[in-house]
Structure formats: C-alpha cells, structure tokens
Amino acid sequence: MAPSASFGRDSEEKAKLPADRSGIDGECETPSVSSDGDERGTWGNHMEFFLSCLGFAVGLGNVWRFPYLCYRNGGGAFLIPYVFFLVFAGVPMFFLELSFGQFAGTGPITIWRVAPMFKGVGFAMVMISFLVCIYYNVIISYILHYLFASFTSVLPWITCTNDYNTDDCVEGGQVKMAFEMYKCNNIGGDYFNGTCFNATMNATAAMMNETLLNTNFTRVSPTEEYWKHFVLQISDGIDDMGGISWSLTLCNLLGWIVVFFSLVKGVKSSGKVVYFTATFPYIVLFILLIRGLTLDGAMDGVWFYIKPDWSRLAHPKVWMDAAVQIFYSLGAAWGSLITMSSYNRFNNNCYRDALIISVSNCATSVFAGFVIFSVIGFMAHEIGVPVGDVIDQGPGLAFVAYPEAVSLLPISPLWAILFFFMLFTLGLDSQVRQAPFYKPPLSPQHFILLSA
Length: 452
What we know:
By secondary structure, the protein is an all-alpha fold. Helices cover 59% and strands 1% of the residues. It has a two-stranded antiparallel sheet. The longest helix is centred in the last third of the chain and has 34 residues, at 350-383.
C-alpha cells in the first residue's frame, strides 16, 4: 500500500515559492515557523546564499592547513589528488546536500522524514557541529587576543625581554649571531664583534664539531614563547591545572556575542553580515600577496611551495590528506549546507552554485598558499635559515610562524592587524554557518540554536 504522505513540496507550493515553504506534504504539511508564529524566512537574494556557502567553505583551514599539506605532500604534485577528490567526491557531495535541503525546505533533522530510520544522522550532524562550534570559538578567542594585542607601536611578541621568556629565546634578527656565538663557545673561543677569538680546537676538529652543532643548535623564537607562555600559559603537566586566563575568557565571550548578533534575526541578519565577512578576506589576501612578493626571499618561499615532487604520489598518505582536506574544507555531511539551502527558492540553480563554490574554495586554498609562503620565504631569508625550518601548520603557522614573519616587516602592527582581522572574519563566517541550524528570528529564549 502506497504511503499517504510524499516527501518534498507539491506543485502548488512550487508555483508560489518563495512565500510558502511547507517542506513535507500530508500529515507533515505544517510550515516551519518560530515560536511566535513567524514563517520560516528565506534569503533576501541569491547572493546572500552564495556568499554564505562560500564563507562556510572558505575557512581557517584554507589558510593555515592547505599550504602546509601542499608543501609536505609534493608541492604542485599534490594538486593531482586534491583535484581528483574535488571532482569525484567533493562536488558530488556538495551538490547532493544543496539539492536535498533546497528540495525539502527544512533542516538537517526534520529532513530525514524522508527515511525516518536515518533521523539519527540528522541528530549526529547537529551534535558534531555543536561540538565543533565550541572549539572553533576558542580559536576565534585566540585570534581576537592577537588582534587586540596588535594595536600598539611595538608588537609584544618580537622581544625576548619579557618575564615569561626563557634563556633559549632568540629574536629573529639575532639568529645568525646567536648560532655563531654557540659554535664559538663550543670550540673554546670567545665571540666578539662577529669574530671568534682564542679557539682551542684545531680546524679539522672544529669543522667536524660544526656539523654536529648544526643539528644540535636549537632556537626558540619570541613568538613561540609568547604563544605558549603568555597566551596559552601552558603548565608543566596535567597535575598543574594553572589558572584562568581572563583575557582569553573575555575574548571567548566576545566571540559568542558576535555570533549571537549575527544570527539574532536568522537568515535576515546573517545574510547581511556575509557581504563583509565573505569578501573581506579576499581583499586582505590580495594585499598581503602584493606586499609579500615584493620582499627579499619571497620567491624562494613560493618555489618551496609549488616545487613538484612526483614521487610523493606513490604514497597513500598523500591521497588521504587530499581527501580529508576536501571533505573538511567543503563541510560535507555537517548539516550546514542542508540548512542554508533550505532557505533557497525551490527553483534555484543549486548545481551551478555547487560547482562555483567548490572550485572557488579550492582556488582560495592555492591562492592562500602563495600569500603564506611569500612571507615565510622572506622570514627565512631574514633570519638565515631554510624555509623548511620555519614553516608550520595550524596554530603553529597562524600564531607563531606568520606573526614572526609579520614582525620583520616595516609598519609591522598594520600587517598584523590586517592578518588577524582576516583570520577573524574567516573564522566568524564558518562559525556562523555551523552555529545556525538557524531558528527564525531569535529571541533571548532561542539562544540555544537547534535545527529548524
């Protein structure tokens, strides 16, 4: 016997969209409304939806993870598995979720009325996004801390004279001298004005010793000590819990306040915010690229980034990293794409959107790599070490390597402000698209965001 209810919107609803968004016919034909009786909203126009999806896909991972993965997995050769998984996994999954949500016009939990036994998948999407939102906002609090700390004439992470610095701290411009002093002291000499005097070790032994010293010399940058000892306040072990960092606590609270006001009126407010948060990062990336390419050593960094190593394609881990990056960056199976597309007009061309957004996301990752490595190449040139010794990924890139590179630039506070504000808009855009599962206009009672 055929079921009495069908999934999707009937022809009458399609004809008068976007006014009526019933979602599911028959016994489930109740329109999605808020508790005060307002109908479920829609995007103000197509551009709001497009920029929202683009802002969700383009996040912190495009800037602080992809460039490192590309360098580690064969440079330009890494683009082969990356594009492969984009075409055969990323775009199909992205299109599937957009079309699924747009057809049903409902969120990632109620959408599973199409197959009730899979409703747990919707709850899993919400819970995963909820947990990710918690840690993502912690990252935003770090970014806000660095952003506020950049509003000064001298960046606080460029010196080794602070209370939290250790004896191993060496400032960027003194790395060469520190290494020469280290070598001179270990062959029994006295270092003065660039020359090693009274060395007690003969030339042959000194040369052998220098080879050993090259591997033993360790340098801790002031940016690393600022990150670990001042920002994170890392303790000696799990037995020492440490205290509360009130600066990070307030930054975390500020991050949640910004997210709340971005969603306070559902898609009507978040759709307006995205005009700035989705476009501003591209402006800053372009400015940083132009500035980076004019620096000494920039091309060494760029070549280090794109130099192909075809032998790496034989390693399974390279293909695994490409697949993970595609799925994590595009945000497939997280529920946010279903939610965003559910506010679309029924006849919106989501196939076109899926193609453009997916390709734009991956192109942004490649573009960000040139931005990062041009400045990292300059940093390696200035402190006299190979590019491979200063590049990092994740927090190590965003809060240690790149801030140190920025500190070596003229008018360094300006570039630090631009960089961290760009990271803030990237993080905020992804956070707002994950935190939703937007209820229509939020009142204080709706601060806990559940799937519509």
